[in-house]
Design a protein that fits this description.
Radius of gyration: 16 Å
Largest sheet: 8 strands, mixed
Number of strands: 8
Order of helices and strands: EEHEEEHEEEHH
Shape: globular
Structural class: alpha+beta
Helix content: 10-25%
Strand order of the largest sheet: 5-4-3-6-7-1-2-8
Length: about 170
């Protein structure tokens, strides 16, 4: 039998309606791969810096020796070799930050294992709530403004799952 992990990634600070994605991810996955999945799931274009925070550990796209954001954290873990699946399965509190200017912040919750068919290891969105985000929005405040003006970007689960499949063909 083959399995995948299931996680829920929820945008912090937006509740009515919330913005979240429930995502199947491969069992063995690095934080860099998890970053690519989250970026695709929410409509980002991978243009800005990012980090995962787990307790006092930071896993980031920035070099810890030159970035001031690491001064308050004890440890820096390499995003390519650090295994996200191990952290997620241990019920650690995981926060994902993207674009330090817009300050997108997401909570990641581990939901459990799901049986998968054959060797289907590609990630995919199972459920979702809320619209698509993008790199041109300046965080939660602009998201709320786009909602008020009726300019939300509709989430298309089929094209997102297709994009996720294409990304993982290359990895």
């Amino acid at each position: 039998m083959m399995y995948k992990n299931v996680i829920k990634v929820k945008l912090k600070g937006i509740s009515k309606p919330p913005v979240w994605r429930e995502i199947e991810i491969p069992l063995r996955i690095s934080f860099f791969e998890l970053h690519l999945i989250i970026q695709t799931a929410f409509g980002f274009e991978k243009l800005f810096g990012w980090e995962f925070e787990i307790d006092k550990d930071i896993i980031s796209s920035f070099n810890p020796m030159t970035s001031p954001c690491f001064q308050e954290h004890e440890n820096y873990l390499d995003p390519v070799i650090s295994m996200a699946d191990i952290v997620l399965m241990n019920d650690s509190k995981v926060i994902y930050r993207y674009d330090y200017t817009s300050n997108w912040v997401f909570n990641i919750e581990y939901k459990g294992l799901k049986e998968c068919k054959d060797f289907d290891f590609k990630p995919r969105i199972l459920k979702y709530k809320g619209e698509n985000l993008n790199d041109h929005m300046a965080g939660n405040e602009e998201l709320l403004f786009t909602r008020e003006s009726g300019d939300e970007i509709e989430f298309d689960i089929f094209s997102v799952n297709d994009n996720l499949s294409k990304i993982f063909e290359k990895i």
